[in-house]
Write a structure and sequence with these properties.
The chain is an all-alpha fold and 58 residues long. It has helices spanning 12-42, 45-57. The longest helix has 31 residues, at 12-42.
């Protein structure tokens, strides 16, 4: 199935497709990959805070 974007112009149709797919891929990346990467590399902030509080109370 072919989607006609902006009237099928030879200039605007490819540009619209790039903008569309770039937006979809970027949105997926920001909403899924970035939080998982942050959680993976930075760790759980609640655990770090609990550990610091325990160390200070000793």
């Amino acid at each position: 199935m072919r989607i006609i974007l902006l009237g099928g112009s030879s200039l605007w149709m490819p540009m619209a497709a790039v903008i569309f797919w770039g937006t979809i891929i970027t949105m997926f990346f920001i909403l899924t990959v970035m939080p998982v990467a942050y959680w993976r590399f930075m760790g759980d902030p609640a655990k770090k805070l609990t550990k610091e509080v325990r160390m200070m109370s000793r």
